[in-house]
């Protein structure tokens, strides 16, 4: 347990047992998600003594998150639209199991205001903001209007573009290149950079298709593409009246507009800029009477100026970075606020954030060949263990990865007294992880953390995709040791190894990669 976590534990326990605080009105929570975030939410529910219900598609029948819940319910076939994105299937599972609340995690239905309203109408607590707050901030178009009304600087653009022709007209007004973005979601989906009018039609249609598939809606907005820029975000906790900023995270290292490395604090943010960003984020939350956790995202230029991008009205993938520095359990805070606790009752004032934390997203993808998603069977899995290292994982040895969902496998997070200690600790954790049978971005993450630009904290949103990255010439020693142990174990013919991805680097080792 980190020092910040230890200091905060007693305060958190007091909040949960506060005799004057409202009782938790639900006795069971359904987790409407999958993978590592479902496992993580179930863990906190167990610590709070609240029974949990996991849901799963047929493709996820044997996945670890199914076992993480106290109960589990099948909700449909593999396509997300017929399972995790199906409001009726989720609510039916809650009804059948007697769950009085739903935690949406991130992605899927987590930022769907209509689903939050349906839950309320059905008498089920949605662990997140009200539908009204979500509509005001979770929808990118509405969030821009709210920010503008508060005098928060915006990236120039258009709040909604209904056709490729309109998008071209708006792009010519603000100047190419521009960014098309899905109005109703985040996580890098439904986003395209467009450099000229001739590229617009294909990019517009691709962004609409991706937005519809990921979020159930295909509305797009357009913004000027800021370059070079850093991606900086502020974590907010709010109770519907007051909001509290919990520091910033820098998430500039991205591929295809999806984050790879996140850290807190940002080495590039001056104290005056930090205070201004936190003030803007707090004003957004309070103006929308927001209750729960949210993240306000900004683009910061080389001169330190910043522009509002969007609000994510949910738990962020990178929330462990903030937790490692503050000692807070943000999922517990979400649940307590959804139960009616005030900000002071749900989260007594935490100590000042300590040290530095960095998170790496371990994904099933070939980072050296276009970040192509990978599938296969995990033949062996062993995590590095060290004080100050946290693993949030949604995978297990023997599991076969489906092509139907996001490639994120786990988050590896390290905390140190300063940035360099956290960096070196995270590199050790990644080098010491053995994951056999599936191609991952493990080596690429190490390359990013060891790169001179990251050591100097000189990274921008274009850094990853502006350079050519070459695969390593050697295999890390811990991986070789794990491989040797694996191939020495007797197995019957026709086992899981027959399903190994044929593009895996282990296959290239010849006899070393086969039993």
Automatic annotation (TrEMBL):
Any one Gene Ontology molecular-function term assigned to this protein's record: ATP binding
Gene3D superfamilies: ATP-grasp fold, B domain
Region (Disordered): 491-515
Official protein name in the record: ATP-grasp domain-containing protein
Domain Biotin carboxylation positions: 25-469
Pfam families the UniProt entry points to: Biotin_carb_C (PF02785), Biotin_carb_N (PF00289), CPSase_L_D2 (PF02786)
SMART domains membership: Biotin_carb_C
UniProt cross-references to PANTHER family, sorted A to Z: CARBOXYLASE:PYRUVATE/ACETYL-COA/PROPIONYL-COA CARBOXYLASE (PTHR18866), METHYLCROTONOYL-COA CARBOXYLASE SUBUNIT ALPHA, MITOCHONDRIAL-RELATED (PTHR18866:SF33)
Superkingdom classification of source: Bacteria
Domain ATP-grasp: 144-339
Upper lineage: Bacteria, Candidatus Eiseniibacteriota
Protein keywords: ATP-binding, Biotin, Ligase, Nucleotide-binding
Organism of provenance: Eiseniibacteriota bacterium
């Amino acid at each position: 347990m980190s020092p910040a976590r230890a200091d905060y534990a007693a305060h958190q326990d007091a909040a949960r047992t506060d005799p004057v605080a409202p009782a938790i009105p639900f006795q069971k929570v359904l987790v409407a998600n999958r993978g590592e975030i479902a496992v993580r939410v179930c863990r906190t529910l167990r610590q709070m003594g609240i029974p949990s219900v996991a849901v799963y598609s047929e493709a996820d029948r044997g996945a670890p998150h199914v076992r993480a819940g106290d109960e589990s319910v099948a909700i449909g076939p593999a396509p997300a639209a017929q399972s995790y994105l199906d409001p009726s299937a989720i609510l039916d599972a809650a009804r059948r199991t007697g769950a009085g609340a739903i935690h949406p995690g991130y992605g899927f239905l987590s930022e769907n205001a209509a689903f939050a309203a349906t839950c309320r109408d059905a008498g089920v607590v949605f662990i997140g903001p009200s539908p009204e707050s979500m509509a005001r901030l979770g929808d990118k178009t509405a969030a821009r209007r709210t920010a503008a009304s508060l005098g928060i600087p915006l990236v120039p653009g258009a709040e909604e573009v209904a056709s490729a022709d309109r998008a071209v007209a708006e792009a010519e007004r603000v100047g190419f290149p521009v960014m098309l973005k899905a109005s109703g979601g985040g996580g890098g989906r439904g986003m395209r950079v467009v450099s000229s009018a001739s590229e617009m039609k294909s990019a517009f249609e691709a962004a609409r298709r991706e937005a519809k598939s990921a979020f159930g809606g295909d509305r797009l907005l357009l913004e000027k593409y800021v370059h070079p820029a850093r991606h900086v975000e502020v974590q907010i906790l709010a109770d519907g009246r007051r909001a509290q900023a919990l520091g910033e995270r820098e998430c500039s290292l991205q591929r295809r507009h999806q984050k790879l490395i996140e850290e807190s604090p940002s080495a590039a943010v001056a104290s005056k800029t930090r205070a201004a960003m936190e003030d803007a984020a707090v004003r957004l939350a309070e103006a929308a009477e927001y209750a729960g956790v949210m993240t306000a995202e900004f683009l910061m230029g080389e001169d330190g100026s910043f522009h509002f991008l969007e609000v994510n009205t949910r738990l962020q993938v990178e929330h462990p970075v903030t937790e490692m520095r503050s000692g807070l359990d943000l999922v517990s805070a979400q649940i307590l606020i959804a139960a009616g606790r005030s900000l002071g009752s749900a989260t007594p004032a935490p100590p000042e954030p300590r040290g530095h934390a960095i998170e790496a997203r371990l994904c099933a993808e070939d980072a050296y060949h276009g970040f192509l998603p990978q599938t296969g069977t995990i033949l062996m899995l062993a995590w590095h263990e060290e004080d100050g290292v946290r693993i949030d994982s949604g995978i297990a040895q023997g599991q076969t990865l489906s092509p139907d969902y996001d490639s994120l496998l786990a988050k590896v997070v390290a905390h140190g007294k300063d940035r360099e200690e956290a960096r070196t600790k995270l590199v050790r954790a990644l080098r010491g992880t053995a994951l056999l049978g599936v191609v991952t971005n493990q080596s690429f993450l190490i390359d990013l953390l060891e790169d001179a630009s990251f050591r100097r904290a000189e990274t921008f949103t274009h850094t990853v995709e502006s350079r050519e990255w070459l695969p390593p010439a050697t295999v890390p020693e811990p991986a070789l040791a794990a491989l040797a142990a694996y191939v020495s174990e007797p197995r019957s013919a026709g086992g899981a190894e027959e399903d190994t991805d044929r593009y895996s680097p282990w296959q290239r080792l010849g006899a070393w990669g086969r039993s």
